[in-house]
Amino acid sequence: MDDIRLHFYNTLTRTLEPFESLEEGHARFYTCGPTVYNFSHIGNLRTFLFEDILRRTLKLFGWRVTQVMNLTDIDDKTIRSANEAGVSLREFTDRFIQAFFEDLDTLRIERAEHYPRATDYIPQMAELVKTLEEGGHTYRSGDSIYYRISTFPAYGKLSRIRLDKNLAGARVDSDEYEKEDARDFVLWKAAKENEPSWETEIGSGRPGWHLECSAMAMSLLGETFDIHTGGVDNIFPHHENEIAQSEGASGEPFARFWLHAEHLNVESEKMAKSKGNFFTLRELIERGHDPLVIRYLLMSVPYRQKLNFTFDGLHAAEQALERIANTLRRLEHTPDAIDQGAMSLADIKAFLRHFREGLADDLNTAKALAALHTVLRQVNTALDSGGLSAEIKQALFGAFKEADSVLGIFPETGTSSTGDDDEIQALVEERTEARKNKDFARSDAIRDELATRNIVIEDTPPGPVWRRQ
Ligand code: AMP
Ligand code: ZN
């Protein structure tokens, strides 16, 4: 299957391009992380989950990965919220960083290699501003330092937005009145009362948000790296400004591929606290929703399409996951058939091919999931008609393990067992034994007990199988 090549839609070129890494066999990418002043909402997590799928897919296709995700622990929002809470910025952001990692674990999002905190990279940020100053890209106004966009002719190449010079009212950042040109943006904000600030060689103050990402990305990944990602709202001005800063300083291309996730809406509307349709992961879990169902739903729509989150959709995702778990369990607990059965190794290979082709097509998770559901239907049909050989079963479990290395949605322990599975399996076996011994009182009692636990037993030709209702 080496002929299947990974392709990504590159926002920079607006085309689907085959992916190549700069360093052979090593993919390096930067993902804009959370601003740590509150709990992640399901929109943020959709973007972080897309990045998890990206990471896992790169690994599936044989790359070693180095992923950096920054933690924005200083900006207007974190400062304001820490002041309101009456604690230091560090203490305040620590809490939400911890909560963020808990949310990642809940959704089985794999850890990146690096999680730099902006406040740990102040010297590197000051250094970057100094380089830009030396290159004539900046000016000072008050004690703040701004980027002069007119010195970077390629400005706008990512977003393809053309901002006219001095466009009336076109201030990009609402709190900046001191700019020469409406398009310019702040690199370094002068120290203010009630705000944390650092003494650096470029003066006393704190970094602007865009500067943070450029400095952390280049410190950890070098001047040029493979992929930069974020949500679509990051394209302009954040990523455009990152390019201006990084390429303005290094003279080298910054990221080669830019991937952006579309937003998530709730019941077709933009999420907003005022509309009552704003959900954090924690709130959904408190309402009794299974994190894996949420993971399934968030990945079921390819990342470049808007995702309309609905409670009906959540219910459908729950049913889809249930079907997957039932089939896996059935496959595991059905005795091996002597014959190969109604599936061949070629069918399993075809499944893996379709699965990979889906992901290779710009991480089309909908296609990959469709391939999984197709093969599971084949498995059910084969089990209905005489079962499968040990060899085929083993090959299927191998293929499922490979698929789940990207999807991350299969039940927790082993290949397909959850919680009380072993106990249920033991009861099912006891029932089989009782029937063999014609102890029908006992076998009926076991069936009834399982029924109260919503477990149905079906007696199929190769032996009894059970599933949850
Ligand atoms: P923030 O914590 O606001 O800096 O956002 C973290 C990430 O979530 C960024 O990459 C945003 O682009 C992304 N994001 C914010 N809102 C949404 C949304 N409704 N749907 C998808 N991604 C979002
Ligand atoms: Zn960023």
Q: Please bin the fraction of helical residues.
A: 40-55%
Task: Give the termini distance in whole angstroms.
Answer: 38 Å
The percent range for strand residues is 15-25%
Helix tally equals: 14
Side by side, the strands of the main sheet go: 5-6-7-9-8
Count the beta strands.
Answer: 15
Poorly predicted parts: none
Ligands bound to this protein structure? adenosine monophosphate, zinc ion
Secondary-structure element sequence?
EEEHEHHHEEEEEHEHEEHHEHHHHHHEE
Oligomer: single chain
Using the CA coordinates, give the radius of gyration. Answer: 27 Å
Strand and helix layout:
Layout: E1 7-10, E2 15-18, E3 26-31, H1 42-60, E4 64-69, H2 76-85, H3 89-106, H4 122-134, E5 138-141, E6 144-147, E7 185-190, E8 198-200, E9 203-207, H5 209-221, E10 225-231, H6 235-250, E11 255-261, E12 264-266, H7 281-286, H8 291-299, E13 307-309, H9 311-333, H10 345-360, H11 365-384, H12 390-407, H13 421-436, H14 440-452, E14 455-460, E15 463-468
Helix pairs in contact: 1-12, 2-3, 4-5, 4-6, 5-6, 8-9, 9-11, 10-11, 10-12, 13-14
Bound molecules: adenosine monophosphate and zinc ion.
